[in-house]
Amino acid sequence: MTLALTLVLVVVLTALVFEYINGFHDTANSIATVVATKVLTPTQAVMLAAGMNLIGALAGTAVAKTISSGLIDDQVVTVTSQLIICALSGGIIWNLITWWFGLPSSSSHALIGGLCGAALAAADNSFDALIWAREAEHWTKNQGIFWKVVVPMISSPLAGFTLGLVLMGSLMAIISAMNGAGGWIARISRPRWVNALFGKAQIVSAAYMGFAHGTNDAQKTMGIIALALIGAEAAGTLDNLPGWLAFMHPGDGDGIETWIVITCAIVMAAGTAAGGWRIIKTLGHKMVKLHPIHGFAAETSSATILTLAAHFGMPVSTTHSISTAIMGVGVAKNPRALQWTVIQKIVWAWILTIPAAGGIAWLMLKGLIALGWS
User: At 127, is the pLDDT very low, low, confident or very high (cuts 50, 70, 90)?
Assistant: First the structure.
């Protein structure tokens, strides 16, 4: 086995490590609210999220195609195994740092930051290495970092907050109207009945959230593996694969190979099953006190945004959408109930994620270049 092929296999393994960490790092995004409201036990919630992550990951590949062909300009920089390993490592290291401190940062943006940082290092810091919306054709086709990363990075938190606020406000208005109607309608609008009803509904919304998480997050690693294999195929690394590795050829189409989809789906589900209790505590308990109706509103809002983004191939942050949906629900409930010091730490983690992961990846690849290993 040649060194080049060995590096490709290391890329695949590193990508799956990232996928596993993504699973347990972002588990909190799927289940924090349903655990905080005590609708499900942590074990029940994790198993529900893992199962729905698996189903969601198998539901499409639009986001994977964005990652594999929509960010790095391969006419400017050669996508090597070393570049991708450094990109993944930047994301992994930042994910572990934020997990340790219980901060719900974005695995999506950590990965994108790692890719951008490594690409810049490979291109001697030329921003031409990245695909921007710099030509009229790109603008009309919504290609590049501007449309696929920058716009969703700003719009998804705003959408999460707004949808959470509107949905929670609407539910509160309906309950208030029922309470003023008198008779049996007023009786079923009492807190005990409301908690019982939305306790059941939140199981559905938690499953929806797990599915949406799978449709978006699992696909990012699929795209990385596809990117590595396409680069290896172009370089001739896969020309003489042994029989037991023949499945690694990327194929002639523009789709993501079935084995990549299934492997990433299973690995993310396994990571999700491992749990991520530090972040669950931050999202589910520290920002605002939640009841089942609040959890239902937050999960439904966030999952809707993620599902729509996945349909359009946008690698949206699960962390951003659920965190801001919880904030919106909290504002609808009582703005003074939000713990703004906790929110401030979360926002700083969001701001730092892309430059931090990108900086780590940049340093690693520059180090390899200095050693002559790239």
Answer: confident
In this structure, the number of other CB atoms found within 10 A of the CB of residue 244 comes to 7
DSSP state letter for 284: I
What angle is formed at CA 344 by the lines to CA 339 and CA 349, rounded to 5 degrees? 130
Whole-number Å distance between alpha carbons of 346 and 329: 17
Helix (H/G/I), strand (E/B), else coil: 1: coil
Label residue 137 by pLDDT band (50, 70, 90): very low
Burial letters 169-183, b for 16+ CB under 10 A, else e: bebeeebeebeeeee
Burial class (CB in 10 A: 0-12, 13-18, 19+), 56: buried
Residue 334 pLDDT greater than 70, yes or no: yes
Q: Place 1 in a pLDDT band, splitting at 50, 70 and 90.
A: low
CA 131, 132, 133, 136 dihedral sign is negative
Of 294, 370, 276, 296, the residue nearest 332 (C-alpha): 294
Question: Nearest CA to 326 among 294, 355, 291, 360?
Answer: 294
Map tokens 């290495």 to a residue: 129
pLDDT value at position 138?
43
Which are the contacts of 166, defined by CB distance < 8 A and separation ≥ 6?
Answer: 328
Q: For the segment 92-120, what is each residue's pLDDT rounded down to a tens digit?
A: 999 889 888 877 778 888 988 999 999 99
Q: Which helix (H) or strand (E) holds 310?
A: helix 292-311
- 200, amino acid identity: K
Q: Report whether 63 contacts 81 (CB < 8 A).
A: no
The closest of 102, 28, 103 to 278, measured between CA atoms, is 102
The model's pLDDT over 245-266, given as tens digits with 9 standing for 90+, comes to 888 887 665 568 888 888 988 8
Per-residue pLDDT band for 296 (boundaries 50, 70, 90) equals very high
Tell me the C-alpha to C-alpha distance, in Å, between residue 75 and each of 24, 145, 147: 36, 16, 20
Give the list of residues 6+ apart from residue 60 with CB closer than 8 angstroms, or none: 215, 219, 310, 311
